[in-house]
């Protein structure tokens, strides 16, 4: 999990924030910084995490519960609320290749951990040892509450593949991530190769096993196809539009849905240090890169960076809220 600081004013200096946890046997902090802290839940119990900056402080109570039981051949049926994570414990009876999936067909984000094992993604298959206990964390990012019917079982022969989406739309300089899904849901997945109809419109920046990162490069339409070694295929259509441009008054209005992101192309009027901030102080993320997507600066409600006049920059806007939210961004020296 992760805690994030929100300051008042949003551009207040918070470089000397100190993070502490009341009971480190329940929660472990790691890689803390001035913006926030990741933390890991170690055992059931209650404790408090506190951020301190001089005489100012803010605290959050953390409640850790025991994981839910998951049994092969049975359905774990639960309501999983938006932005909630459920944790299941599973102990296989014998060694084998196992798959975890939702019988209702939802593609949740999952993490699987155990002895010498750590995996994450929207498809979860792994070789597990009989008698060992593994933890499966299932997260809901759908923007609404859903009925989860969690299953686990050994994999079976693959009869087909599909992509999570059949149509993708975006703006130049954005990325789209493609993941192959098995048919049936516990079909033993194979690595795939990727084929692009028109590489002037989109390009393959990175691929791994059953996933790929696609860069949207030019206005137009094309297709991307995943292919297994034995000839099973799945194809997605891509439509790329021009990116939004920061208006001349340097105030940008935009609305985003839950877990969406948007890219804005901008330039600055003269050399100097600039800040981009959201007038409404909503919960989201900002990142500034050059036009080749080299990271320059990032933050939650505001971001500071050095810029040169006449240079092209990209502003990535990320929405972490649980509903459609309107933002008012300012670009100021």
Would you write up a description of this structure?
The chain is built from no helices and 32 strands. The protein has strands at 2-4, 18-21, 27-29, 36-41, 45-53, 56-64, 68-69, 76-80, 85-90, 96-102, 109-114, 117-121, 124-128, 134-139, 146-154, 160-163, 167-171, 175-183, 192-196, 202-208, 211-216, 220-228, 233-241, 244-245, 251-256, 261-266, 272-278, 284-290, 295-299, 302-307, 313-319, 325-332. A hairpin with a 6-residue loop joins β3 and β4 (36-41). The model has no long low-confidence stretch (mean pLDDT 88). It is mainly beta and 333 residues long. The chain is flat. The chain has a 5-stranded mixed sheet with strand order 7-9-14-11-12, with no helix packed on it. Strands 24-26-31-28-29 form a 5-stranded mixed sheet, with no helix packed on it. Strands 8-15-10-13 form a 4-stranded antiparallel sheet, with no helix packed on it. Helices cover 0% and strands 58% of the residues.
């Amino acid at each position: 999990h992760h805690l994030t600081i929100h300051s008042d004013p949003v551009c207040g200096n918070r470089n000397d924030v100190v993070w502490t946890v009341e009971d480190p046997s329940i929660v472990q902090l790691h890689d803390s910084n001035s913006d926030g802290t990741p933390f890991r839940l170690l055992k059931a119990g209650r404790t408090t995490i506190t951020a301190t900056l001089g005489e100012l402080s803010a605290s959050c109570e953390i409640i850790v519960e025991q994981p839910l039981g998951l049994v092969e051949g049975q359905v774990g049926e639960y309501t999983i609320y938006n932005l909630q994570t459920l944790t299941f414990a599973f102990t296989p009876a014998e060694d084998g290749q196992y798959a975890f999936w939702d019988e209702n067909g939802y593609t949740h984000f999952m993490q699987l951990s155990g002895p010498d094992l750590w995996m994450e993604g929207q498809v979860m298959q792994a070789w597990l040892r009989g008698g060992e206990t593994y933890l499966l964390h299932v997260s809901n990012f759908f923007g609404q509450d859903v009925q989860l019917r969690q299953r686990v079982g050994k994999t079976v022969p693959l009869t087909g593949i599909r992509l999570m989406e059949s149509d993708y739309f975006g703006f130049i300089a954005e990325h789209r991530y493609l993941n192959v899904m098995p048919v049936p849901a516990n079909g033993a997945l194979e690595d795939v190769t990727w084929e692009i109809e028109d590489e002037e419109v989109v390009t393959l920046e990175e691929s791994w096993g059953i996933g790929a990162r696609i860069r949207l490069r030019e206005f137009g339409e094309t297709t991307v196809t995943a292919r297994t070694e034995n000839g099973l295929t799945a194809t997605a259509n891509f439509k790329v539009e021009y990116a939004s441009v920061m208006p001349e008054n340097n105030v940008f209005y935009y609305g985003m849905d839950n877990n969406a992101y948007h890219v804005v192309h901008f330039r600055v009027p003269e050399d100097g240090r600039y800040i981009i901030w959201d007038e409404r102080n909503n919960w989201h993320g900002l990142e500034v890169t050059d036009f080749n997507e080299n990271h320059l600066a990032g933050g939650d409600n505001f971001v500071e960076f050095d810029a040169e006049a006449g240079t092209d920059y990209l502003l990535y806007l990320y929405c972490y809220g649980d509903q459609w939210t309107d933002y008012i961004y300012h670009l100021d020296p």
